[in-house]
Every structure is written in C-alpha cells, then in structure tokens.
C-alpha cells in the first residue's frame, strides 16, 4: 500500500473567503494506494479541502503537490488530465443523457482530438479507439452492476443508482487519485453496503488512491487506511482508525465529549448516532 514518495501532499494550506477562514494551515500527505478519509463536523472545511485538491478552489496560502508536481494554480481540467478525478456531494450528472453517454463524457480528455492530427486520425484510428473506449466503459458498467440501466436516461434513475453512475463517470477518467465527496449521502443501508464494497474494490482491484469525505462513521472506520479530522478548518488529528477514534480532541469535537470522560463502546456508538444522525 505504501510508497516511498507520497502521491499527494498538501503543505500549510489555508483558504479564506473575505474575512472567513475555511482552512487554516492544513498539511497532510497520501501514499499511493491508500484509502484516505477526511471527517469532521458540518462546516469543518472538508469539502473546501477537497475543492483545493481538485482545483475548484485555489488556496490563499500553501502548496499542493501531485506526484511531486506543484499543481497549486492548475485548473480542474488540467488536473483531470494528469490523473485527479472526483465525484460531488450534490449530483452533477447530465440528467437528459443516457447512463452510457454520461460515463463516456469522462473519457473525453483521453480522446485524440488535436487539430493537426485530427483529419488523418478520423480516417485511420477513430473506429479502433472508440471500440477500445467502449470496452473500458463496459468493464466499469459491469464492475458497478449498472448493466440494466446503461441505456436509461440518468435523470430518471433512483438516487442510489445516480450516485453509482457518477462514480462510473469519475472512474472513466482513469484517475490515479479519485476524490469522493459523501458518496453514501442519502442512501439506505443496502445501498451504503454496496457502495462501500465498490469503493474498497476500486482501491484494491483498480489500484486507485481514494480520498473520501463521508459522515457515516461506521463505514469510515471499517474501510479507511488512514483518517484526517478537521474542525473549524484546522487539522486536529490524523492516523489509522483506531488512533483517531481514541483521540480525545476528536471525541470532544465530533461527539461532544469532555476530555476527562471515558466512554464504553455502546455509549460511544449512541453518541455518534445522536451527533450525526447515523449509526456507528
């Protein structure tokens, strides 16, 4: 799982919107092949951090490195081209297009379409390349078990299926690093279990490094290799799930627990459910 050089590094990242500090001096790194989760209470800065990683926001201060390259001022499209893909907390599918067409959009930057070679290409390799792309898309569709809706209009699908289609489109980018912003939000228990399995398989079988924001603490603790906790835009903890769960600052920020109170597992699970509305 670990590599000598991190695939991603954030160094002293701060983000301000006018007088509001969304992030303050946040530093962390992610090794190639990790499943890394970012958690914290509502308004902690999780999505702001992911937006800085994807290029949607530019940090006010600090640097962001991807595969050793400074991408701090790089556009989202350019980051997608070099291997950073993402899904969104709020679905960003083309509702009037079919599932297949939505996923194909994710392949756009992989198509050879420059002006100088374009004319010759369409007479020689276009058909071959299209078939290769279609084969890879079909593999993704099979992987996510959405064969039965491949020709359906995306906007007509259930919420859980649309979440899977959005993941498929992000996978179609063939990213080395994939950002998942609350992939299980709004799902029932069965849908969450399926999505958790897809994310683990995506990490293990496809070899993608995963950065996930998720409020379901049970899922986070079960599948994450390492976790970073944000609170009011600051990093308050980082480590493996056991370390983070035992951290007094995390319990205080996330569970509302005083530092000198020790909770047993049943009390802790009840506190998580009361605080987040989700079963631990």
Please give a structural write-up.
There is one protein chain. The chain folds into 2 domains: 1-83 and 175-260, P-loop containing nucleotide triphosphate hydrolases (Rossmann fold, 3-Layer(aba) Sandwich); 94-174, no CATH class. The longest helix has 18 residues, at 126-143. Helix 3 packs parallel to helix 6 (159-172). The two termini are 26 Å apart. With 280 residues, the protein is α/β, with parallel strands linked by helices. The chain has helices at 46-54, 76-82, 99-105, 115-124, 126-143, 159-172, 189-204, 217-223, 241-246, 248-255, 265-276, and strands at residues 8-17, 20-30, 35-39, 61-66, 69-70, 84-86, 177-181, 209-213, 226-231, 234-239. It is globular, with a radius of gyration of 20 Å. Strand 7, helix 7 (189-204) and strand 8 (209-213) form a beta-alpha-beta unit. The strands form 2 sheets. It has a 6-stranded mixed beta sheet, sandwiched between helices. Strands 2-1-4-5 form a 4-stranded antiparallel beta sheet, covered by helices on one side. Residues 114-122, 259-272 and 274-280 have low confidence and may be disordered. Helix content is 41%, strand content 21%.
Short description:
This protein is α/β, with parallel strands linked by helices. It has helices at residues 46-54, 76-82, 99-105, 115-124, 126-143, 159-172, 189-204, 217-223, 241-246, 248-255, 265-276; strands at 8-17, 20-30, 35-39, 61-66, 69-70, 84-86, 177-181, 209-213, 226-231, 234-239.
């Amino acid at each position: 799982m670990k590599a000598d050089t991190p695939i991603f590094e954030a160094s002293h990242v701060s983000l301000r919107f006018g007088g509001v500090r969304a992030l303050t001096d946040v530093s962390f790194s992610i090794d190639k092949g990790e499943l890394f989760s970012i958690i914290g209470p509502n308004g902690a800065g999780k999505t702001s951090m992911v937006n800085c990683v994807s290029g949607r926001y530019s940090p006010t201060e600090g640097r962001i490195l991807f595969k050793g390259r400074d991408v701090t001022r790089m556009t989202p499209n350019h980051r997608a081209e070099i291997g950073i893909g993402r899904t969104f907390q709020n679905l960003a599918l083309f509702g009037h297009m079919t599932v297949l067409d939505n996923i194909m959009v994710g392949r756009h930057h992989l198509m050879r379409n420059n002006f100088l070679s374009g004319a010759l290409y369409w007479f020689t390799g276009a058909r071959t390349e299209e078939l290769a792309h279609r084969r890879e898309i079909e593999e993704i569709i099979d992987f996510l078990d959405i064969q039965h809706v491949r020709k359906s209009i995306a906007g007509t699908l259930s919420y859980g299926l649309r979440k899977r289609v959005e993941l498929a489109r992000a996978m179609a980018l063939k990213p080395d690093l994939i950002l998942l912003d609350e992939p299980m939000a709004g799902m029932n228990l069965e849908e969450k279990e399926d999505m958790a399995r897809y994310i683990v398989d995506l990490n293990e079988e496809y070899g993608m490094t995963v950065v996930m924001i998720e409020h379901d603490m049970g899922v986070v603790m079960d599948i994450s290799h390492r976790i970073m906790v944000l609170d009011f835009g600051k990093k308050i903890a980082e480590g493996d799930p056991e370390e983070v769960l035992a951290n007094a600052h995390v319990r205080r920020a996330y569970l509302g627990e005083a530092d000198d109170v020790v909770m047993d597992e049943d009390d802790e699970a009840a506190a998580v459910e009361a605080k987040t509305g989700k079963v631990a």
